Amino acid sequence: MTTVTADWLQTVDALKEVPVSQLQWFIDNSEHHHYPVGSTWFKAGDAVPGTHIVISGRAKLYLQQHNDMVELMTLEPQSITGYLPFSRMTKAAASCEIMEDMQVLTFPREKIDDLIHQHFELTQALVHVMTSRVRDFTSLQQQSEKMMALGKLSAGLTHELNNPASAVLRGARSLKQHLQLVPDVFKALMNLQLTEAQVDAINCIMFEVIHQGPPPPMGMLERSDKTDELLDILDKYKVENAMDIAENMVDFGFSEVHIEQFRKHIADKAVSPVLNWINTNLVTEKMVTDIEEAASRISKLVDSVKSFTHMDQGQDKSWIDIHTGLQSTLNMLEYKLRKGNIEVTRNFDTSLPQVSAFAGELNQVWTNIIDNAIDAMEPNGKGHLTVTTAMDGKCLAVKITDNGPGISPEIKDKIFDPFFTTKDIGKGTGMGLDIVAQIIRHHRGHQKVNSEPGNTTFTVLLPLHD
Prior knowledge:
Layout: H1 6-9, H2 20-28, E1 31-35, E2 40-42, E3 50-65, E4 68-75, E5 80-82, E6 95-108, H3 112-118, H4 120-190, H5 196-211, H6 220-236, H7 242-252, H8 256-263, H9 268-309, E7 318-320, H10 322-332, H11 334-339, E8 342-347, E9 355-357, H12 359-377, E10 383-392, E11 395-402, H13 409-412, H14 432-442, E12 446-452, E13 455-463
Parallel strand pairs: 8-10
Antiparallel strand pairs: 1-6, 2-6, 3-4, 3-5, 3-6, 7-9, 10-11, 11-13, 12-13
């Protein structure tokens, strides 16, 4: 075993400024322990006996979740852990397994008062260790939760971006092939030698219908009847590609009345070439519209990502419309909502004033709560999510309600505790709602939850003024 001296303790970075006399007092009042490899040092829930300094060996801290072990960190030589001055820790939050034979110096908790009253520099050093531990641990867990949330969002976002991107690619390729056929149709039209007045009349009728926009959605039977009506009149004038033309014209809202309007300005022999040229324009219009809609969908998703991460603004508080973040979050989770067959109702009071907030942090709050609601409704195969904004006294209230099975009374008081989760391994760290609570406290607000089977509501209250 390593002989522990005051000089050795001064090699520990946190203790290097502590007087030798205080370190020797610490050694004299401490206990030496040896733990063999493969043994368990302590388990989550065990009482913490005192302050530990690892002299040699290694151990790993881990959490047990659904029979799986989630590793948190590794204790190396010179690590300081356990109870520290002014800490509120009474029980271990995690378990510890010895990876290499370990020698530990343990200062008993019963003597902490003597330490605090008699040895200022040593107390100060250990308090600094505690604050650093809290800061590093909180940062680590927040980053872990952010990465898990990002993983959830990225899967759906990838799918959502892939669909319109593929649509743009398909549309571009189809449009390229279609445009190669246009010269033949145009040549047939030129051979008719139409007058300028005839061309203007045809264009006027065609674009008047196009600019009206597509007709209301039709059932299969109604659409079939309208197509047959157009086919009858197209066959009357012996129009080539009649079926293709009829189907496209129905999509744009053309009827037999428009065919007769075209007919008034051209001879019978010109009807087929003219309608084929019009059909070419309709096909082009349809392809360009599909590409535009797909590109618009991509743009909407990119805007949602930008708004969600708030990457174009600084890290300071700013006055924000709460609905922007809520809508961006719903956009980001749209794939998961659609996959879960979840209907969303937005009861937004858009007249609410802006709030001073860290927009990116609040988006993390909405993501965690809504994602939990989606997971809760998953077993039903469908669900209803309601997001409501309203005034509540001097606070702005955001209520997120789901019709899942509810939260049992046994765990309701634990859901905001660190590491508490009912999700399977890999689906949750148990830090999501703890981080929600931290962020809300950061905004000087508070949260509450009411739950019964079929109706669970998380309410976030944010003060309107700093």
